[in-house]
Amino acid sequence: MPVTLVEVAARAGVSPATVSRVLNGNYPVAESTRQRVEQAVRELDYVVNAHARALLHATSGIVGVVLNDASDPFFAGIARGIQGAAAETSRLSVICNSEGDPEQEFAFLDLLRGHRADAVILVGAAPEDEEYRAEATTRAKGMRSNGTRLVLCGRPSPGPDAPGDVVEIDNGGGSAAITRHLVQLGHRRIAYITGPDGRTTTTSRLAGFRQALADSGVAADENLVVHGDFSRQAGREAVEQLLAAGREFTAVLAANDLVAAGAVSALRAAGRRVPEDVSVAGYDDLPTAMDVWPNLTTVHVPLEEIGRKAVELAFGPADTQTVVTVPTELVVRESTAAAR
């Protein structure tokens, strides 16, 4: 039979109410008493009944995390930060992988709402169409009525009346900074490989690139903009496409580090040296950036910090919507050099 809270209380020499206070952490208890209760919990191998706690306190202790792609190190880094911060509040993180499918995302939101999750954190770029925004707003309102806090991480709010806090990434600013770096090195023919079309992150990073070129007095050549996705294969195919079309370029700026790694591979296969012949830069500062040779110049995004900030907002004041913008930072490594 499972050990009961009454048995823990008897072993610790305290009342069941005191054991409950120690386990819930919601009432001051003398340090010596807390230690006795924790020792009794360990000795008896007592496990809190999460279902009973949810019924009693109208809370599940669950933090739902919906990722666009759980296999992508970008999302894994943010999830690590969320899980660590949630664990510090004695909450369980439930990771859901939507694979970027809005219908799957909404299905996970409904499931987590049904399980009375304390909070749900949506991570990654969102579709930009109006139908998605309207449906996302409806889901956000439903979660609020259910007592579940919503945090959007790396995506904007779907609308002005959608409840939920937001952790934004300065995608445009980071893209502008790395574009200026290439321009300062003398590059004027800069190829750009985008992420998937119709996604907020893709739009912001491409806009930052174009704005930095305009601010620097460099004419943008749309023939050097290749639309892809956030994969290594997309970077390889984009460079192959540019070379096959005879496009002249001295630098490649990729939507993320995986795309940049694919670009380096394609350039090397074509006999182009990096950075002697073509400079290559990425975005996100994933572990991939240091695995590629030469190591990638990129934009550092503090992924774990972003995840922790999302949890902080999830359990912070609920009376107003909070929007936090996390800055990015240019990281210069060996993959970029002066234009030849």
Automatic annotation (TrEMBL):
Molecular function per GO: DNA-binding transcription factor activity; transcription cis-regulatory region binding
Keywords: DNA-binding, Transcription, Transcription regulation
Bilayer-crossing regions: none
Protein name: LacI family transcriptional regulator
Top-rank taxon, per record: Bacteria
Residue ranges occupied by any HTH lacI-type domain in the UniProt entry: 3-57
Taxonomic lineage from the root: Bacteria, Bacillati, Actinomycetota, Actinomycetes, Pseudonocardiales
CDD domains: HTH_LacI, PBP1_LacI_sugar_binding-like
